[in-house]
Amino acid sequence: MSDRDVRIYEVGPRDGLQNEATPIPTGAKLRFIGLLADAGLREIEATSFVSPKAIPQLADADALMAGLDRRAGIRYPVLVPNERGLERAEAAGADAIAVFTAASEAFTQANINMSIGESIDAFRPVLARARDLGWWTRGYVSTAFGCPYQGEVGEAAVVGVAQELIGLGIDELSIGDTIGVGGPADVRRVVGALTASGIGVERLAMHFHDTRGTALANVSSALELGVRCFDASTGGTGGCPYAPGAAGNLATEDLVYLLDREGLTHGVDLDALLVAARHVAGTLGRPLSTKVGQAGGWRVP
Ligand code: HMG
Ligand code: MG
In whole angstroms, what separates CA 232 from the centre of its chain? Predict the structure, then answer.
């Protein structure tokens, strides 16, 4: 990858849909994933193998994976919280997983009913098995910029859990602003602490929620620090039911527009992406509310 290449890691089918009150048919999710692939996305987080009681919206994960039209060259990671999730992912034919914990104890407890230390212990056999299978692995560090229960989160806590995940052999870390409270100075502080601790910037992805409108500014800040992977959700949907106050993820269409204006390459076609964005808005029965979704791309007349 050249320094001008940016990876866009699409989380719409998972983070985007996990918090929606409207039940979404599996077929509509599969169509969404197909349209995302058509638009050029090469990493599409498809679903979660979590407890269906915790996230009923993704209770169709097994059926979704069975119906997935897996295209060559596309990675379809799935969330896995424990060994049971790994077994389900393996039976479903997954080859890329994301485990997830956080930098604050209170959120980790609310989200996965474990302490941070317990989550690391739970991931150890999961990641060992994934490594044996030759799978790609990612680890989320949520609430890296603030916790809905505990408030401010210091960068030392983020570095601590990030290093634990690196120690388990994780391929990539996704640093999450779960409730969208951080700004560019926080990005410099947190990414600076991670890289100062010896974690290469090429192993970092940033996961911004646009709750307070700072997501794109945060992307710019991270780009300047050398980060080249960003999570985003087409249609701007998203949030975690266990993170009160979390609003939509950074919209993929807004991210693509910014990257295009920066002259960075990412392989995604904006017009095709907007087809996928309109599909998800239509499925949810509401108008598309993202900036670029409303305004469209810009063409010189
Ligand atoms: P628990 O209740 O402590 O665990 O839940 P348990 O082992 O006692 O299991 C409870 C029940 O769930 C049992 O069923 C298990 O069999 C079942 P019962 O006997 O009651 O019928 N179970 C499972 N079923 C299917 N698949 C599984 C599984 N595991 C247990 N894998 C647990 C602990 C972790 C399972 C639960 O809390 C859970 O699933 N949590 C997931 C929460 C979640 O998905 N949150 C959203 C993702 S995180 C996020 O959005 C943030 C992110 O976007 C980044 C950011 O924004 O910062 C990634
Ligand atoms: Mg999220």
Answer: 6
Which numbered atom of ligand 1 lies nearest the CA of 174?
54
pTM value is 0.98
With beta carbons less than 8 A apart as the criterion, state whether 237 and 246 touch.
Answer: no
Instruction: Give how far Cα 44 sits from Cα of 32, 40, 70, 192, 227, Å.
Output: 10, 10, 11, 28, 19
Secondary structure class of 226 (helix, strand, coil): coil
* Tens digit of each residue's pLDDT (9 = 90 or more) over 203-233: 999 999 999 999 999 999 999 999 999 999 9
Q: Are 156 and 193 in contact (CB under 8 A)?
A: yes
Ligand 2 centroid distance, CA of 182 (Å): 14
Question: Count of residues for the chain?
Answer: 301
Active site residue 229: no
Name the active-site residue from 170, 179, 215, 240: 240
Nearest CA to ligand 1 atom 30: 51
Over residues 20-79, the pLDDT tens digits come to 998 899 999 999 999 999 999 999 999 999 999 999 999 999 999 999 999 999 999 999
Instruction: Tokens 């991931």: give the residue.
Output: 123
Distance 43 CA to ligand 1 centre (A): 23
d(CA 16, CA 14): 5
| Of 149, 118, 133, 105, the residue nearest 245 (C-alpha) | 149
Which protein residue's CA is at the shortest distance from atom 1 of ligand 1? 113
Ligand number nearest CA of 141 is 1
Here the tokens at position 187 are 């990005």
Express each pLDDT in 226-268 by its tens digit.
999 999 999 999 988 898 877 899 999 999 999 999 999 999 9
Neighbours of 160 (CB within 10 A): 14
